[in-house]
Amino acid sequence: MLLAALIDAGGEVEVIRRVLDLIPQHFSRCNSVRLDTTEVKKHGFRSCQVELTISEKPEETEGGELVRATKAIADSSNLSSNAKAFANGSVRVLTEVEGKLHGAKTSDVHLHEAGSTDTLADVFGVAAACDSMGIFDGNVYSLPIAVGGGSITFSHGTVSVPAPAVLEIVRRYSIPIIGGPVLEELTTPTGISMLTNLAGTFLERYPPMIPEKVGYGAGKRDLAFGPNVLRVVMGRTIEKSFNSDVIQVVETNLDDVSGEIVGNALRLILDAGAKDAWVSSAQFKKGRPGYTLHAICQPSDLERISEVIIKETGTLGVRYQQWGRYVLQRDIVIIKVAFGERKFDVRVKVARDRSGKLLGIKPEFDDVESIARSLSRPAREVSALVLQEARKILE
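Below the sequence we write its predicted structure tokens.
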């Protein structure tokens, strides 16, 4: 489905076929591979469907053999270094996880479905498609992965969805998943291995962009809830004056906690890596006064910050939401400021936009306070003089 979506968005089929033709030369199990594309409709929506016709020997493949074949195919191809790294990385993730699940070395693990020619065709097809479209030269993002539900039956019996290999990969690489929306397998081990090596960031919403191409790749099954398609959106970033990133905003309501406990919690939240934390007054049901505690953190710190909040305040839970934000380029510089015959080093926070234009200057208050105490002068006067000198130096 991923390969079909990339082809639908402009991937060059002949480039892909030339790479797939290398598989029988370096993978002894494979006799031949043929790729065909057709246009189909899924719940009335037009999409591209890929058909791989494969002739191969009915034998198992060891992990080491699949890894060696991947490297040999990549080395003999005209793929870019990024495309080769993607192919090798995808197969490495797949074989490492299979080895762990079966308690075997990566080189010795016996692969069933994962060791077929279909795996190499998927990986190298996507590698060639991305290469032909220049995708490896840009940024790739993914929304959370819908894994489906229910159960599947394969060579190791019947297991619940997501398959063990899928679950291990998303756990290992902290990939966000969502269940459903149907009781079917929607994510395969090969698919998630490729996405792990393709997407640099997983977001809850689309990044700021101007879409230019959209591709739809159809799956074989027809799902009752809607079209069984995977969508790829290609576009260009929006030119802007500011950098952007994604943060998590965490909150909880507190109506039975003392001010001292809340103040201590704020300190510990910041010590745990939060970018900021604060408290606002609130009034809850039955007229009870209280607080709402807020914190901002990186997505990777969300669980740790939430744990501190729950442990320190005794709250029964926290709510969180992912937000995009614009941020200035921030630096701390040290300048020398003269007060009469005495000179002091002062740390100054400097903020600029992407063009380098100076938009903000703020002296470090600890330094201002220390100078003010040393000179027996008001801190506001010291701060004003530092700002004046900083502008002369930095503007």
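The longest strand covers residues 30-42.
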